[in-house]
Amino acid sequence: MSVTGQNSEAFAREACTQLGVALSILGLAGFATPYLPGLDMGFAHVSLLLTTGALGIVIGGKTTHDVALGFVAAAGEVFLLLGILGFLVAEPVAAPQLGGPASVLRLGALELGPFDHVLHLVIGAVFAGAAWFAWSRSERTRPHIAGTPTIHTHA
User: Fold this and answer.
1) Over 90: is that where the pLDDT of 24 sits?
2) Which residue in 13, 73, 93, 148 is deepest, having the highest Cβ count within 10 Å?
3) In contact, 46 and 27? CB cutoff 8 Å
């Protein structure tokens, strides 16, 4: 079997599940230790991580390739957007624990500090990279070029 077809479909679902587990572990760690070094793990932030992680686990394990791929892509976009917004529109606040002012993004009850912004960029890049990899290897999303043979791996 080639890298396309069933392998890429399994990859999208597996990536969704594994990234969901990673976010759930990070959320649980935030409940256990609300002040992880450098991270602001308030209730809203931890709840968001746990909810996203649980959705990733369920979607990766119980749905189709297309739904898993859509979730991984959407989560990547949201986390990348949170990270970018954190650097662009965050407001400076006093942060003696960091040795000076820090940029905090406030979205309702959600407060995100400078290390959160970096973490969100990393999480977003991993989700978006997984989505791109799965999409680029999927036969269903590739356009057919006239005159080239088509190999079907599905029944």
Assistant:
1) yes
2) 13
3) yes
